[in-house]
User: What shape does this take?
Amino acid sequence: MEVNQVKNGNYSHYYDFRTSDSRSAILKTLLEALPLNTLSQPSDESLFLLDVGCNLGHFTAKVKRIVHEVTGRKICAAGLDIDPVLCERASSAVPDVDFLCGNILEIATQRQPEDPIATYVRQHGIAEFDVVCCFSVLMYVHLNGGDEGLRSALDYLCRRGKVLILELQPWKKYRDQVRRLKRSSGEEYPRYGELAWRGGCGKLEGFITGHIVENGFELLQESSERTEFDRQLWVFRRKADHF
Assistant: This one.
């Protein structure tokens, strides 16, 4: 399967140009500030983590370590990426994480014949993941799938995890990405002009976070600090009456 790296954001050399990464420190600060009952206290049971859009798995491994440090729990981690080549390389580089190949947009809209996430859940005998992460991926879902596709992906993630950790790109990054795709291949995102979920100064992020709240989640933490790529992190927890 050939994957357009620019169109889908699965850059094979992503970590070559993101050598400085402030997300780890921001994430640890956010998790340490969560209410004590957000993630279960230390026990003999494993905590299950899913990282959607894992690329080569380097940051997945960091998230796994951070969640372990914060919770004291053994972490069973899985990463999902659209690119089978990256998944194969990640499996060799990070052997203590399970890597799954799949397109979250096609999985959520049931256009991918098999759902590797559902298969993983079934094989491990769990109902859902304790934590689902999605870092800098939803912009590509949105540009390729439109508002409807993004809503489907968000609904799917909400069904799969008790706690969601998201890194969202601001609207300015969307405009930059549209120009980047046009410059690199002459292609366009056909649904870009139709997007109703758009706007700077936090308006776009408000649409996304509001939809997650409508799915029965509460916003626990929003990072006051931005990453070196001008992005924030959000942490959501499903409300008790929606389990």
